[in-house]
Amino acid sequence: MMASRRRLALRVSLPLAVAVAASVTGCAALPGQDDEAKQPAESQSWAPTKEADELDPMTPEMQVIALEEFGVAYDVPEKWLVLDSATATDPSEPSVRKAAERLGVAPKAVLGMLTRLESIAISNEPSAGGLVDSISGAGQKGRLGTVEEILPYITSSGAEVDRRRIESVRGNELSVLRIPFRVKHAGRFRHGVILDIYSRYEDRTAIVTVASGSADRASAGADQVVRSLRIFEIEEDLV
Q: Where does the signal peptide begin and end (predicted)?
C-alpha cells in the first residue's frame, strides 16, 4: 500500500513540477549525454538554519515563503509577487491578474496551477528569452524515492536531465536532492531545477521548482532556496 501511494505521488508531483516549468518558464539538461546510471554527487554535510522566528527573512531584501504543511521555509526576493493557494481564489483579484500578466496566461490558468501548488513566487525582473523566473512549492507525505525511481517520471513528461549535474545534500533534519532539467515548449527550451527536500522527522517532502528561460538564472534561484532553507514549525494553540 505504501509503495503504491508513493508511485501515485511520483506520477502526480514530478510531472506537475515539469508542467509548471513548461507553462511558466523552465531548466537544464544536455542532449547526447551519457545515459549510464550514476549516483548523484554528494556535497558536504549541511544543516538548515533554525531561527527564533522562521518568518523573518535572512536579509532585508527578501520575503519568506513558508510551506507550512511540509515544515520548511525559504526566502525569495522581496519585490517578487507571491500567491498562496489558500488565499488566491478569485481570478478578478489584482494579485492574480498581475500574476497572469507576468506569466502570459489567463487569470483562471493561474488559479488552476494553484489547485496543485501550495504557493508560487513570480519575478518582477525582465524575463530571460521571453520567459519570467518563478519558484513554486508543493509536497507530499513520505519520500519521493531514489534518483533512479524519480528520473523516469521527470523524463516521461518531456524533460531532459543531465545526470552529471544532480546533487545530493544531507543534513541532520533535512536532505535535499537537486535535479536540473530542461523542457522544450513552443520552440524554446525552458530551464528548471527540482529541489526534493525531505524532512526526516516529519516524514514529509517539499517539492520546490525553480524555473527560468536561463539555465544560469534557474541555478542561481535554486542556490538561493537552498541557502535560505530552514525548518518551519507551527505552534498550535493549546485548548
A: 1-28
170-219 pLDDT per residue, tens: 888 899 999 999 988 777 888 999 999 998 878 899 999 999 989 999 99
Tallying the residues shown for the chain, one arrives at 239
Rounded CA-CA distance 208/184 in Å is 20
Torsion of CA 124, 69, 16, 43, to 10 degrees: 80
Q: Name the CA radius of gyration of the chain, rounded.
A: 17
Rounded to whole angstroms, how far apart are CA atoms 236 and 54? 15
Furthest CA-CA distance within the chain: 60
Domains in the chain: ranges and CATH: 2-27+39-231 (3.40.1000.10)
Q: How far apart are CA 46 and CA 63, in angstroms?
A: 23
Could you identify the residue written with the cell 489584482?
94
pTM across the whole model: 0.77
Q: How far apart are CA 132 and CA 228, in angstroms?
A: 22
Specify the residue for cell string 504543511: 69
145: left (phi over 0), alpha (psi -120 to 50) or beta: left
Containing H/E element for 193? strand 188-199
